[in-house]
Structures are given as structure tokens and as C-alpha cells.
Amino acid sequence: MRIAMIGTRGVPARYGGFETAIEEIGSRLVAAGHEVRVYCRGAESPQGEYKGMRLVHLPAVRHKALETLSHTTLSVAHLLFRRTDVALVFNAANAPLLPLIKLARIPVATHVDGLEWKRAKWNGTGRRYYLAAERLAVRWSRQIIADAVAIQHYYRDRYGAPSVMIPYGAPIQDDCDAGLLAREGYQVGGFHLVVARFEPENHVDLIVEGYTRSSAKLPLVVVGSAPYAEEYSRRISALAEKDERVRLVGGVWDQDLLDALYAGCASYLHGHSVGGTNPSLLRAMGAGAPVVAFDVVFNHEVLGDSGVFFAGPDDLAAAVEEAEASPSHARERGDSGRERARTHYTWDDVAARYERLCHDLEAGA
């Protein structure tokens, strides 16, 4: 099949969950004998091919409300003049462009992502747009892709729409690169970790506040930044400045180091609340990190019995103190999470499910 993947920043994956999914799924579809075309947002030295996937680089308007849709508009225009058997569109925000793909008689499935309209960065207009885009995705997609059962239930209950559930995969780490951590000034089991974009629905401020209320001896390492949330970033910085145990290290783009941080932390503190199956959470589980997660249905679904959950700063403080008081128990939870990831969240299985979906779309099922 000739498969087009549209609506993300593209590959190589350097940014988020969608991009990692494109790279992992697309490369496996190529290995299975399919032709995969990935639309990427402009690059200084664009590659024509990556892991067998054909790359098309197109520009985008650098504005939080326009970046995704502007790039996808150009991508769809390019798509209409290329032979394509199936289109996979990522992000429900791109739904207004689906009729053009349908007019070209290309069967299309839309990965709707999480509940984007709940994100604090969107004002009233932005939220109304995302709610309208959800409805349009349901109306104009041949199939809806949900990455969590809870997202399936949301689309069923709100729109009466069926969907196919295909989660993300988790990279599995059975060992930690202690030498790499040491070169960067860390010790295995010697720090707590947060990896998140600085956005209110990821609760980085709540985590930092809760940690500062704790009697924790190990430092809190906060990996992340905020491209569109300066005020929220300032709040996090103000909280961190009051406690020398908190280390804001910004973005970490060295994937080996990031892997080592996940595998070497005393606990991984996960505050995401509006997505489905979160890739950062899966990465932590696959690394055997003991996870303390915000108390929402998505995180319960992914973690099962391997997680500890918090709803406020005091809960978080208690969980951090418990991780330090009983590191062997925390490590047991981490091992349990890794086995859960190994069983339920493998990229080979995810890619096989996408391949079946594409065959169904091509066949008109």
C-alpha cells in the first residue's frame, strides 16, 4: 500500500508522542513492504528519506493557533497530486481538511489524540474550534483512532461514534547507563524526575509545589520547557527558586541521557491529565521507573496496579517521601510497570494493528 502520514512535525522524532509514533509505526510499515510518505514541518537540511520512509518537507506558520493547520493544508494540497491508497491524519484539529482527502477518494483515518479542548492554552475560541473539530473528525473520517479505552468511551458517549483503539508503544530498558548519568552529575536512584512540557494540564507546578512541601532528601530534576506558556513557566520558576533541591534543567535532547534519567530515577512524577495513553508515561514504565501519577482515568488505565496516584500537593509530598523511605518497594513497582509495558504496549503490535487498519481502509471495510 501507499500510505501517507499527515499532521505532525514529522521525523526524525525530536518533539512529542505523535512524532515518535510516526517513526516507530512508519519504519515498521516500510519493513512490511509498504510505501510510507511522511509530511514534515520545514527543516534547515531536509532529508528525502528516513528509515525507508519518504519525507516531504513543507513550511508552517509559527503560531500556536495556526501552526498545525497551516502545515496540514499544504500537506493535503501535495497529497492530492500523489497516488495514495490510505491517509492517516494525526490530530483532530486537522478535521476541516478531511473533505479534500475524501474528494480525492482516499480513505482516511484520524487519530484524534486527547481532549485538546481542555488544555489551558486555548481560550474560548480555541476550545470551541477543537470541539467543532472533534465533530467534523467523526463525520468525515472513515475511521477514528483512539489511543486509550477512555478516549474510545468519550467519543462513544459524546458523539455515538465507534473507534479503533491503538495505543502507543513503550521502549523497554532493562538496564541503566550509570556511567552516562555519572558524567552528567547524577547517581542511579539519586533523584526524582519530571519530564513534561510546561502546560497547566501537565501539573508541573503542582508537582514542584508538592515536592517542596516534602521532607525529601533527593533532588527533583525537572526536564521540560514551554514554547507558548511564559506565564506558567514563570510560576514554576518562582516555586523552584524557593527550594534549592529543585533543579530546572530545560529540554534534554540527548535521547541516551533521557533514557538514563528515566531508568535511574528514584521516582517518576507524571502530571499529565487530558491526553490518552501518554508516551512519556510509557517511556518511564518501559525503563522500570517507579511512577507517581496524577489521578485521572487515563493514567489508571495505563499503569494498572503498578502506579501510585496523587490529586494534590500533599498527596505528592507523601508519595515522594514513601519512595525514599522504601526504595525496594518503589523498585518493585517499577519492575511491575516495565512488565506491563512489555506485555501491553509493544511497537511491533501497535504497527501490526495500524497495518490491519490500513488494509481495512483500502478494502472499504
Automatic annotation (TrEMBL):
Pfam (any one): Glyco_trans_4_4
Basic and acidic residues: compositionally biased ranges: 329-341
Domain Glycosyltransferase subfamily 4-like N-terminal: 16-169
Keyword Transferase set for record: yes
Domain of life the protein comes from: Bacteria
Keywords: Glycosyltransferase, Transferase
InterPro entries hit by this protein: Glyco_trans_4-like_N
Renumbered residue ranges of the record's region Disordered: 322-341
PANTHER family, per the entry: GLYCOSYLTRANSFERASE
Protein name, per record: Glycosyltransferase
Organism: Nonomuraea recticatena
